[in-house]
Write a structure and sequence with these properties.
It is built from 4 helices and 2 strands, in the order E-H-H-H-E-H. The protein has helices at 11-16, 31-37, 41-44, 64-102; strands at residues 4-10, 46-52. By secondary structure, it is an alpha+beta fold. It has a two-stranded antiparallel sheet. The chain has 2 domains: 1-54, no CATH class; 57-103. The N and C termini lie far apart (58 Å).
C-alpha cells in the first residue's frame, strides 16, 4: 500500500537536518501548524514537502497494510477530537468577546 503525505518544514531543517540530524526532524501538518509551533519559521522560511513510504522496515504481527489502515483511522479520529475541542474553545472565546463588548 503506497502512502504519500504532504507536510511543512522549517527550511533550515529541510536543508541541513533531513536524513542527517540525530533525533529526527519535525514535519508539520499545515502551514498554520508550523507557524504556531516553530517560532523561527518566519525567519528561516517554510518548505512544503511530500513524504512517501518506500517500504516497511520492521513488520509487526499484523500485516503492514492492515496496521496502516488502523493507524490512519485512529489518526483521523484523534484529529477530529482535537479540532472539535479547539472549535469549542473558539466558540467560548467568541462568546466572551461578545459579552465583554456588550458590557
Amino acid at each position: 500500500m503506497s502512502i504519500t503525505r504532504i507536510g511543512y518544514m522549517d527550511q533550515t531543517d529541510f536543508l541541513h537536518e533531513v536524513g542527517e540530524g540525530a533525533g529526527g526532524t519535525t514535519v508539520y501538518a499545515s502551514l498554520n501548524d508550523i507557524l504556531n509551533h516553530c517560532p523561527c519559521a518566519i525567519k528561516c522560511g517554510v518548505v512544503k514537502v511530500k513524504i512517501s513510504k518506500v517500504e516497511n522496515m520492521i513488520a509487526g504481527l499484523e500485516s503492514a497494510q492492515e496496521r496502516d489502515k488502523t493507524w490512519l483511522a485512529n489518526h483521523y479520529r484523534q484529529q477530529a477530537d482535537f479540532f472539535k475541542k479547539r472549535a469549542e474553545n473558539f466558540l467560548i472565546l467568541a462568546d466572551k468577546i461578545e459579552k465583554d463588548d456588550n458590557e
